[in-house]
Amino acid sequence: MDRKITKIEIVTRPSKLEDLKNALNEIGVLGMTVSQVFGCGTQGGHKEIYRGREYEITLVPKIKLETVVCEIPVEKVIETAEKVLRTGKFGDGKIFVYELSDAVRIRTGHRGAEAIMDIPGEKF
Q1: How far, in Å, CA of 110 to CA of 107, rounded?
Q2: pLDDT per residue over 67-84, tens digit each?
Q3: 66 within 8 A of 8, measured Cβ to Cβ
């Protein structure tokens, strides 16, 4: 049976990472990739003074959390992320959702949903 595989990217403030990671773990999302990124948008930037000169910083530090799900409902992941991240201020972030056509677990050759699911009884 083919299961839908979905990738979810969440871009938000670095200060929210631990809260987001813990909330996603609670709903069963254990695998994730986190990157430090820079971005610009409606939040804008800010000005800093370095060695007496004023500089406008237009790229703001963010984190990007990526996860792939097939068993956990996508809406549950989105709702959980929104609940943790929403402050109502500019810079709360964005969530992007992509449908994936395939996934491959390189070690075993499993494809599709089997590639991203935990294998019962197998530990690192």
Answers
A1: 8
A2: 999 999 999 999 999 999
A3: yes
